[in-house]
Amino acid sequence: EIVLTQSPGTLSLSPGERATLSCRASQSVSSSYLAWYQQKPGQAPRLLIYGASSRATGIPDRFGGSGSGTDFTLTIRRLEPEDFAVYYCQQYGSSLVTFGEGTKVEIK
Amino acid sequence: QIHLVESGGGVVHPGRSLRLSCAASGFTFSSYAIHWVRQAPGKGLEWVALISYDGSYKSYADSVKGRFTISRDNSKNTLSLQMNSLRAEDTAVYYCARGRTTGIYGSDYFDYWGQGTLVTVSS
Q: Distances in Å between the alpha carbon of A81 and those of A78, A97, B45?
C-alpha cells in the first residue's frame, strides 16, 4: 500500500496569497497517477487535478499541479474566498488507491 | 448533467446489516467502474470498494472484505453496497464515485461524486 503524507496539516493564509500544498508518497507513484480533490464542509470532494498536472473540467487556472515520483505539489496561485477548504491527494498508480490525510487551507 | 445520488443510510446496531444504493444519471452508466469511498466524522477519505463497468471485477478494502458486497444493475443505472456485520468503525458518510481508469482494474481517480449518505453504527 502506498502511503501519502500531506503537509502542512493546516495552512493559514489571506485571500490573494499563494498556497503551496505538498503530498509525499512512500514509494514512487506509477506514471504520475496522482489526483487532488477539494472538499468544503458538508460537501462531497471535487476533482481538481489528475495525472499530477491536468486540470479537471471547469477548474480555474489558478489551480496547478506538479511533481513526479514521490513528491507532488498543488499550488493555488491567488487564493479566492471560495478556495478555503480541505485538500486531499490520491494516488491511483496501483490497484489499491489511497488518499492523503488532507491539508486544511484556512483564512488567516 | 451527471448525477450520482446515494440513499439507504441510517442508524443501525452493531452486528446488523444495511444496504446502500446509488442512482446514476447523465452518462452511460454501463461504461464506467463505480466505487464506494467513505469518510468517518471529522476524518479523511477511505476507499471501500469498486465494481468494474460490467460487474465482472470487484475489489474491497481489507477493512470491509468478507462483510460488504458491491453490485450493480446496468439496466437500472444503479449501484448497491450490502453491508453486513456492521461495526462502530464503519460509521461514516458513504459516497459513490465514478472511476476514470488508467486501464488497470482499480487504478482509478474519481471525477464525479454523489452527495453521500450517513451510516451510523451505534447501540
A: 10, 31, 24
Question: B110 and A45: CB-CB below 8 Å?
Answer: yes
> pLDDT digit string (tens) for A36-62?
999 999 999 999 999 999 999 999 999
- CA geometry: angle B68, B73, B79, nearest 5 deg: 45
Q: What is the dihedral of CA A25, B91, B86, B52, to 10 degrees?
A: -50
Nearest alpha-carbon partner for B112 in B3, B38, B36 = B3
Q: Residues B64, B51, B2, B104: is their CA dihedral positive or negative?
A: positive
Choosing among B65, B109, B117, which should be mutated to test the A contact, i.e. which has the most A CBs within 10 A?
B109
How far is residue B57's CA from residue B12's CA, in Å, rounded to a whole number? 29
Pick the closest to residue B7 from B96, B123, B98 (CA basis).
Answer: B96
Cell output for B39: 469518510
